[in-house]
């Protein structure tokens, strides 16, 4: 094939957002490599690249949602069938970029305080975001595996980044072993798909060849193997055993990214694979994922009640939130996917807000035990209020955003007849309010004697506690913007989102439904549609 | 030497590797079992590509990618083990609960 | 005659694979396991040769045996306590010594959890074998491809160009990350 024809047929403008991120990554790497002394504005280059990619994604979205219906599949496929840039993948990639930006903002000060290398951290982080962005747009089994491993390997390295801390090493090893096992299960299932489709690796061709060769009963094996692999990534119960230990041992910014980015990537993978390859196994897929969702909701929320460390409690609550998101995944078709996407957006904002508050508190006092939060309102009312808003939104209290997201999810599930899921969801939501309110109640204690020792000495220079070896609190930090520190910027964005996204959810829902309209493979086929 | 025998071989080595992964107490042996599992998957892919896809050989390309990613993964795993070992020599082990899965 | 040679060599290589992998998981000495891994990887490369995958066999020997196996041996040598083989250390059972020691086995060489896992893995293999033998595999007539390098090269630069380029970034950060983790800092505490 002629070289010029090859380049023209690759359709590269589809991955323009990822290309911008790769260029910013390389610029950061080379500038850091070639400069003699550390450049202080270098961390803003990856952030700038991610923001530019958000803009590029917006432009792509306008292009994709304005083409006519006849030419869907050919115009959004890039790289001769490896990458699918349709509307729903643009939305997922938007979520990945957004979570990448917010996580970088909340990690700058943390990395500075622990005196580890900052630029390498950012490079690993941006690569993880890049892997997640390629994962949600994959159209080919090889791209699926390579993108999954890019996300995974960067996450293992980031988990073990605090190499002097024993718990970080332990968490990294455990995460690597369990992650490698789960991706090998996924890979075995993928090899079975290659076998059963008679030798095709592109997702559309696999489906077409299933029908031709009629292998109905052997399809359960790759379905179960792929579900096991995805369930590990989503940390759905009973495959969530790695979550609390890894979340407790890793540095907190990485926990924030794992709880948000990994889950969104796992959900996107589940959406794409299940909708394209297994649309005729609807009943079995529903049963499998219903079991996963019910177990996640129950186990995640019940065990979170007993935790004493706020990081671990947020980890278990994220297992429960994954259960909620799976309700939307199971419901499927227009309402299910749009409710899942809206709740995913709200979940990213409120979870990152909660983790940012935990990081800021940890930077100032060095601990993350829940009992050390008592009396925070007296000493630092703004931080207490921000944490309160994020926790209440996670619990689903009106009029915050979490309530509207859960309302839409439960409504969509009820409409499609999944009464058990909605009932379990409502019950555990009420239970979850208990452990969120417990933290909030502690923060608003007024008596001086009841406050913890950390709060009594708040604001004074504190020395080593759990998180880092020689942390001291200085006045102005290297990364301060003119008036505000990056982590405070992140907290304010997340709190703003948690309050107002719910009230402004109607235009967002319209946008998401427009995206689903322009993505044919996840809509209800005429013969299988029940009610919308 | 037909496809069923080769897929049976792949399944057997996969299960043996899985057993070794789940029951070893030594971290390096767990890594070795992981390499066994990835090789079983590779045998599967190459045999399917020979018997079903002999003109396009896409399975062999996939197997090549898996070999490269396995190399990167084992390098990272050994770096983590080295860091763990270095810390273990100088810090008291009290909460080393790695054996609990 | 050629049929006999092909079948015979395939049975031999299969036997090496199975017995080697059983040896890897059952032998208590870690160095034996590492060398048996080398033997298994070579046997797998031989199977690739029998399946007409000549480039992949060469890549397997170069990367797996030549790089990964040697890396594993380096790691074993680096983190193994030299005093592990002395009698006094074997008496003091510290299960925390995870990297270079195996705990004493009770109950004739098996712990109870190991039996449960053995049961699970055997069941998994029986299920897989059933599914493999009961699926009607429709294989087209066998036409061997003698130009596997050309075909693989064509795929890597047209169909699979995106994963190929993504792999380059993955290998870059694996390199950076491994160096960061394993680097010895200047102000490292030695207590």
UniProtKB/TrEMBL annotation, chain A:
Locations listed in the record: Membrane; Plastid, Chloroplast thylakoid membrane
Catalytic activity reported: a plastoquinone + NADPH + (n+1) H(+)(in) = a plastoquinol + NADP(+) + n H(+)(out); a plastoquinone + NADH + (n+1) H(+)(in) = a plastoquinol + NAD(+) + n H(+)(out)
Topological relation to the membrane, as annotated: Multi-pass membrane protein
Residue stretches spanning the membrane: 14-34, 41-61, 90-111, 118-136, 142-161, 173-195, 215-234, 255-281, 287-306, 313-334, 340-361, 382-405, 417-437
GO cellular component: chloroplast thylakoid membrane
One GO process term, biological-process aspect: photosynthesis, light reaction
Keywords: Chloroplast, Membrane, NAD, NADP, Plastid, Plastoquinone, Quinone, Thylakoid, Translocase, Transmembrane, Transmembrane helix, Transport
NCBIfam families attached to this UniProt entry: NDH_I_N, PRK02504.1
Name this protein carries in UniProt: NAD(P)H-quinone oxidoreductase subunit 2, chloroplastic
Organism: Cymbomonas tetramitiformis
Gene: ndhB
UniProtKB/TrEMBL annotation, chain B:
Record GO biological process: ATP synthesis coupled electron transport; photosynthesis, light reaction
Reaction equation(s) it catalyzes: a plastoquinone + NADPH + (n+1) H(+)(in) = a plastoquinol + NADP(+) + n H(+)(out); a plastoquinone + NADH + (n+1) H(+)(in) = a plastoquinol + NAD(+) + n H(+)(out)
One Gene Ontology cellular component: NADH dehydrogenase complex
MF GO annotations: oxidoreductase activity, acting on NAD(P)H, quinone or similar compound as acceptor; quinone binding
Domain of life where this protein originates: Eukaryota
Entry keyword Flavoprotein: no
EC annotation from Swiss-Prot or TrEMBL: 7.1.1.-
Keyword presence, DNA repair: no
Protein location: Membrane; Plastid, Chloroplast thylakoid membrane
Pfam families named in the record: Oxidored_q2
Transmembrane segments annotated in the record for this chain: 6-23, 30-49, 61-85
Record membrane topology: Multi-pass membrane protein
Major localization class: membrane
Alphabetically ordered keywords of this record: Chloroplast, Membrane, NAD, NADP, Plastid, Plastoquinone, Quinone, Thylakoid, Translocase, Transmembrane, Transmembrane helix, Transport
Family statement drawn from the similarity comment of this UniProt entry: Belongs to the complex I subunit 4L family.
SUBUNIT field: NDH is composed of at least 16 different subunits, 5 of which are encoded in the nucleus.
HAMAP family per the UniProt record, alphabetical: NDH1_NuoK
Function, as annotated: NDH shuttles electrons from NAD(P)H:plastoquinone, via FMN and iron-sulfur (Fe-S) centers, to quinones in the photosynthetic chain and possibly in a chloroplast respiratory chain. The immediate electron acceptor for the enzyme in this species is believed to be plastoquinone. Couples the redox reaction to proton translocation, and thus conserves the redox energy in a proton gradient.
Name used for this protein in its record: NAD(P)H-quinone oxidoreductase subunit 4L, chloroplastic
Gene name in the database record: ndhE
Automatic annotation (TrEMBL), chain C:
Keywords carried by this UniProt record: Chloroplast, Membrane, NAD, NADP, Plastid, Plastoquinone, Quinone, Thylakoid, Transmembrane, Transmembrane helix
Main location: plastid
Subcellular localization: Plastid, Chloroplast thylakoid membrane
GO cellular-component term (any): chloroplast thylakoid membrane
Listed transmembrane segments: 6-27, 34-51, 57-79, 115-140, 160-182
Keyword Chloroplast: yes
Residues making up the signal peptide according to the UniProt record: none
Pfam families in UniProt: Oxidored_q3
EC number assigned by the record: 7.1.1.-
Reaction(s) catalysed by this chain's protein: a plastoquinone + NADPH + (n+1) H(+)(in) = a plastoquinol + NADP(+) + n H(+)(out); a plastoquinone + NADH + (n+1) H(+)(in) = a plastoquinol + NAD(+) + n H(+)(out)
GO molecular function, one term: NADH dehydrogenase (ubiquinone) activity
Domain of life of the native organism: Eukaryota
Enzyme class: translocase
Subunit structure: NDH is composed of at least 16 different subunits, 5 of which are encoded in the nucleus.
NCBIfam families, per the entry: PRK06638.1-3
Primary role: NDH shuttles electrons from NAD(P)H:plastoquinone, via FMN and iron-sulfur (Fe-S) centers, to quinones in the photosynthetic chain and possibly in a chloroplast respiratory chain. The immediate electron acceptor for the enzyme in this species is believed to be plastoquinone. Couples the redox reaction to proton translocation, and thus conserves the redox energy in a proton gradient.
Family label: Belongs to the complex I subunit 6 family.
Protein name per Swiss-Prot or TrEMBL: NAD(P)H-quinone oxidoreductase subunit 6, chloroplastic
Organism: Cymbomonas tetramitiformis
Name of the coding gene: ndhG
């Amino acid at each position: 094939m002629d070289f010029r024809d090859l380049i023209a047929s690759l359709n590269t403008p589809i991955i323009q957002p990822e290309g911008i991120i790769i260029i910013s990554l390389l610029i950061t790497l080379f500038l850091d490599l070639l400069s003699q002394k550390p450049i202080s504005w270098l961390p803003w280059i990856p952030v700038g690249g991610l923001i530019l990619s958000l803009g590029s994604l917006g432009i792509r979205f306008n292009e994709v949602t304005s083409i006519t219906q006849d030419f869907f599949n050919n115009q959004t496929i890039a790289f001769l069938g490896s990458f699918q840039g349709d509307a729903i993948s643009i939305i997922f990639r938007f979520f990945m970029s957004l979570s990448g930006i917010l996580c970088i903002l909340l990690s700058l000060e943390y990395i500075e305080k622990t005196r580890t290398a900052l630029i390498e951290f950012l490079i690993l982080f941006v690569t993880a975001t890049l892997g997640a962005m390629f994962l949600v747009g994959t159209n080919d089994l090889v791209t699926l595996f390579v993108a999954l491993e890019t996300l995974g390997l960067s996450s293992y390295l980031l988990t073990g980044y605090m190499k002097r801390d024993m718990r970080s090493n332990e968490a990294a090893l455990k995460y690597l072993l369990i992650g490698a096992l789960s991706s090998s299960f996924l890979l075995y299932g993928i090899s079975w798909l290659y076998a059963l489709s008679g030798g095709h690796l592109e997702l559309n061709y696999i489906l077409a060849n299933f029908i031709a060769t009629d292998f109905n009963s052997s399809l359960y094996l790759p379905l179960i193997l792929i579900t096991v692999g995805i369930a590990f990534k989503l940390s759905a119960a009973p495959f969530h055993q790695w979550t609390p230990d890894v979340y407790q041992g890793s540095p907190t910014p990485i926990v924030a990214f794992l709880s948000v980015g990994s889950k969104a990537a796992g959900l996107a993978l589940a959406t794409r694979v299940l909708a394209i390859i297994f649309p005729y196994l609807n009943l079995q897929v529903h049963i499998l994922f219903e079991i996963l969702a019910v177990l996640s909701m129950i186990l995640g929320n019940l065990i979170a009640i007993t935790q004493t460390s706020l990081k671990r409690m947020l980890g278990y609550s994220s297992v429960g939130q994954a259960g909620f998101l799976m309700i939307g995944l199971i419901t499927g078709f227009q309402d299910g996917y749009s409710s899942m996407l809206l709740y995913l957006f709200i979940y990213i904002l409120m979870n990152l807000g909660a983790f940012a508050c935990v990081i800021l508190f940890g930077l100032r006092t060095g601990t993350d035990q829940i009992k050390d939060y008592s009396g925070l309102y007296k000493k630092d009312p703004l931080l207490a209020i921000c944490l309160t808003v994020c926790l209440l939104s996670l619990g689903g209290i009106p009029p915050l955003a979490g309530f509207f997201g859960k309302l839409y999810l439960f409504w969509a599930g009820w409409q499609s007849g999944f009464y058990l899921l909605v009932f379990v969801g409502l019950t555990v939501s009420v239970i979850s309010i208990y452990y969120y309110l417990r933290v909030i109640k502690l923060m608003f204690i007024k008596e001086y004697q009841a406050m913890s020792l950390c709060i009594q000495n708040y604001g004074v220079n504190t020395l080593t506690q759990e998180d880092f070896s020689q942390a001291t609190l200085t006045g102005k930090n290297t990364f301060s913007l003119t008036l505000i520190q990056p982590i405070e910027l992140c907290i304010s964005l997340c709190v703003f989102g948690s309050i107002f996204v719910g009230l402004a959810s109607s235009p967002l829902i319209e946008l998401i439904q427009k995206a689903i309209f322009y993505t044919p493979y996840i809509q209800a086929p005429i013969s299988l549609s029940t009610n919308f | 030497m037909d496809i069923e025998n080769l897929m049976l071989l792949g399944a057997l080595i996969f299960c043996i590797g899985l057993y070794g992964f789940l029951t070893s107490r030594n971290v390096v042996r767990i890594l070795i079992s992981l390499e066994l599992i990835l090789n079983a998957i590779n045998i599967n892919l190459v045999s399917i590509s020979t018997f079903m896809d002999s003109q396009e050989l896409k399975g062999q390309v996939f197997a090549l990618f898996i070999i490269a990613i396995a190399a990167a993964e084992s390098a990272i795993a050994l770096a983590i083990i080295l860091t763990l070992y270095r810390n273990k020599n100088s810090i008291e082990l009290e909460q080393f609960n790695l054996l609990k899965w | 005659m050629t049929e006999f040679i092909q079948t015979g060599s395939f049975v031999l290589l299969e036997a090496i694979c199975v017995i080697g992998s059983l040896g890897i998981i059952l032998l208590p000495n870690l160095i034996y396991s590492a060398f048996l891994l080398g033997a298994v990887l070579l046997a797998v490369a031989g199977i690739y040769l029998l399946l007409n995958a000549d480039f992949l066999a060469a890549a397997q020997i170069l990367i797996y045996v030549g790089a990964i196996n040697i890396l594993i041996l380096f790691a074993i040598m680096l983190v193994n306590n030299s005093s592990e083989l002395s009698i006094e250390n074997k008496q003091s059972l510290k299960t925390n010594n995870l990297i270079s020691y195996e705990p004493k086995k009770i109950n004739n060489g098996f712990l109870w959890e190991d039996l449960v896992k053995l049961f699970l893995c055997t069941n998994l293999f029986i299920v897989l074998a059933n599914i493999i033998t009961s699926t009607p595999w429709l294989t087209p007539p066998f036409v061997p491809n003698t130009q596997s390098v050309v075909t693989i090269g064509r795929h890597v630069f047209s169909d699979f160009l995106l994963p190929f380029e993504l792999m380059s970034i993955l290998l870059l950060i694996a390199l950076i990350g491994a160096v960061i983790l394993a680097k010895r800092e200047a102000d490292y505490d030695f207590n």
